[in-house]
Amino acid sequence: MEPVNIIGAGLAGSEAAWQVARAGVPVILHEMRPLVGTFAHKTGDCAEMVCSNSFRSDDDVMNAVGQLHWEMRAAGGLIMAMADRHRLPAGGALAVDREAFSQAVTETLRAEPLIQIRPGEITDLPADGNWIVATGPLTSDALAGAIRRVTGTEALAFFDAIAPIVHAETIDMSVAWEQSRYDKGESDAERRAYINCPMTRAQYEAFIDALLAAEKTEFREGETAGYFDGCLPIEVMAERGRETLRHGPMKPVGLTNAHKPQEKPHAVVQLRRDNALGTLYNIVGFQTKMKYGAQAQVFRMIPGLENAGFARLGGIHRNSFLNSPTLLDDRMRLRTRPNLRFAGQVTGVEGYVESAAMGLLAGRMAAAEARGTDLAPPPFTTAMGALVNHITGGAEAKTFQPMNVNFGLFPPLDDARGGRRGRKDRYPAYTQRAKDDFTAWLAAR
């Protein structure tokens, strides 16, 4: 049996490789790292997480992301299995020890006899064979050029920003306190998963002034600043209005200052645990394009972080993706070159989980083709089906932008569970329908 070739061992490529091998089909997984590095990656491990250590909400009743988690677990997904094994306390979110997670994914793939990991850069797109392109937002210049030549169009682009990471021992806990928003979580560790730094009105205003005045990274010639709204740099949010951050990542709601319970903070900066040891915390929602020196100066204005030591400062990178509604069919194949499937963030989904989910589908579809059959996508009443439907035709091509999974992608409910009822009724109805339909899709396979 001819192998399935996968370009890129990120979250999507790793999941795709696992799904192909689970179907009994051999896989060659091509990864350029560490022979060819990127500015954002630090290792040559598979499924390295570079922006955050969070897979976001794990609530599979009230949240579309949590429903996507559920579907990936039901489908035997490797990424979710390793995330569950290396999860950290994070309230209602699924956060992981990122190094242990990627090492576990790498070891699992290497131990699978049907998977061969082949180092080296792929610089062109083969005209035959069964291929999945899962190169992510940091597709190499050579391969990006090949994609442009094959698609006959320029890839769209936006910018993803990386949040800074702080050494826990340098956080002043006489000012900061541990608490998840609204004390969410079933265990004490979950309810205390975040470190919170409070700001008065005067401190907030001074912080905004410094943020706006700070020196920023310049864009290279020919680049445009088309940011994805779910990952805006904090200075871009601040430019949209002085109160924007206070109603976004710095919102004070659901939190009580343990040191001064009678005083309501004007704003709160949250830090989320980044490793199992609890020695590193990332500043939640603080993606930035400030220059390094400016970052250290501005972030040390945050109460509790005056003496912060940074394990990593923020950064910014270009994120290229296809205009998938015009280029891909519902089997995720390039219409003009059906031997090529695309998966992950390059298809125009946004987020770790969404990228891995597209890898899961692409892997299963490629394996079915290798075995001489065809696999239709899940119904778009499911989280996975809604995503693939969006990128392969559901979205408006002229205004296509990267998309997280959300209930707005699901078809409306047909019965009394929908209508004018609030989200407390609608969301469980969406997720129950999705579970039923995804279970039926799996059983039919």
TrEMBL record:
The enzyme's E.C. designation: 2.1.1.74
Catalytic activity: uridine(54) in tRNA + (6R)-5,10-methylene-5,6,7,8-tetrahydrofolate + NADPH + H(+) = 5-methyluridine(54) in tRNA + (6S)-5,6,7,8-tetrahydrofolate + NADP(+); uridine(54) in tRNA + (6R)-5,10-methylene-5,6,7,8-tetrahydrofolate + NADH + H(+) = 5-methyluridine(54) in tRNA + (6S)-5,6,7,8-tetrahydrofolate + NAD(+)
Transmembrane segments: none
GO cellular component: cytosol
Annotated GO MF terms: flavin adenine dinucleotide binding; tRNA (uracil(54)-C5)-methyltransferase activity, 5,10-methylenetetrahydrofolate-dependent
Keywords, ordered alphabetically: Cytoplasm, FAD, Flavoprotein, Methyltransferase, NAD, NADP, Transferase, tRNA processing
EC top class named in words: transferase
Keyword Cell wall biogenesis/degradation listed: no
InterPro entries: FAD/NAD-bd_sf, MnmG-rel, MnmG-rel_CS, MnmG_N, TrmFO
Subcellular location: Cytoplasm
Pfam families according to UniProt: GIDA (PF01134)
The MnmG N-terminal domain, residue ranges: 4-373
Gene3D superfamilies: FAD/NAD(P)-binding domain
UniProt main location, coarse: cytoplasm
Family, per entry: Belongs to the MnmG family. TrmFO subfamily.
Protein name stated in the entry: Methylenetetrahydrofolate--tRNA-(uracil-5-)-methyltransferase TrmFO
Organism: Paracoccus siganidrum
